[in-house]
Amino acid sequence: MEYETPLFFRVMKYAADADRDVIDVVSGNPDWEPPAALRNGLREYADLEPDAFQYAPSVGLTELREEIATRRGVDVEQVIITNGTGEANYLAMARALERDRGDEILLTDPVYPYYPGKTTMLGGRQTFVATDADGQLDPAAVREAASEETAAIVVNSPNNPTGAIYPAETIRKLVAIAEEHDALLVSDEVYDHFDLEGRFASALEVESAHRIVTNGFSKSMAITGVRVGYAIFPHDLVENARSRHMLVNVSTTRPGQYAVLNALRETEPAYYERNRDLLRERVETFTDALDAVGAEYTTPQGAFYVMARFDGFPGTLENTYRLIDEAGVAGMPGEVFGESRREWLRFALVTPRIEEAAERLATYFG
């Protein structure tokens, strides 16, 4: 089986090779400072004894797992520390498929493209359920799509790419659908700290043996290069996930786990609120420019993405390259995220040049 390089990297390479200045609104790399306590943790780690630089326990540092378990209200034995949220999702989807309850993964449309990519890699097949114009998912549509072949329902809230946050009632109904079909709900909550409207509801609020929650610190602490995530499994599903994690990765970064633990213990809520305030300002700046040229767009309730549609300019890879060459703005083609948003482009508002990017788009489409 052959795998295609994700288009994110192709677009970023094209932008990097361009003959002009290009503003990157492709990648989801936060541009603000990580917590001071995280930097301090890394500095402390550099002076530890040699044994601290050897393998971490495969499931993760005990202290970090205990901290996460306490914060999330779960048993520490349910927590596996992973190589970012990406691996956490891989483990969750693999665990769903290896239960031999079916080979179908229900995904939303639009969808973060790594989910269908992982489905293919794991030997599953995708079925897509369309969301509405605001990115909301109707549980009735999920129930209609689900069948005895459904192994998992994979959702992401706050959502990439739409910025939608699913209300608590939607999450409860999705868990119930998973239970009805002996499937698993995989809830990717990596953007939970970027709830811009106070609406976020975790799947952990619903007690069930049919849900797995994944999360991490790449976005919330602005450390996408550190690679510390986690998955919370039901008790009866965690053992095989531990074994797969050990065989694939052995363990994840020990210094990174140490630093994240230090940041969790010492970072005040004000750090996260400042970043949310910054994003609210950027959303307003960016969408004001879209209003000025009559574009249709999504207003994110959470995360840090805006999808936009410009008349006569469908969201193809070719047009994405064209926007780089002619406007100096690198976004992502909507066709990457599914059939329903082929006319759209997605922009990540994690650059200090967001006002300039907005001005360039307004000039280009004005």
TrEMBL record:
The keyword Transferase applies. Pfam families: Aminotran_1_2. GO terms for molecular function: L-aspartate:2-oxoglutarate aminotransferase activity; pyridoxal phosphate binding. One of its GO terms (biological process) is amino acid metabolic process. It comes from the Archaea. Its EC number is 2.6.1.1. The keyword Transferase applies. Its cofactor is pyridoxal 5'-phosphate. Residues 21-361 form the Aminotransferase class I/classII large domain. SUPFAM superfamilies: PLP-dependent transferases. Keywords: Aminotransferase, Pyridoxal phosphate, Transferase. It is an enzyme of class 2 (transferase). Homodimer. Belongs to the class-I pyridoxal-phosphate-dependent aminotransferase family. This is Aspartate aminotransferase. It comes from Natrarchaeobaculum sulfurireducens.
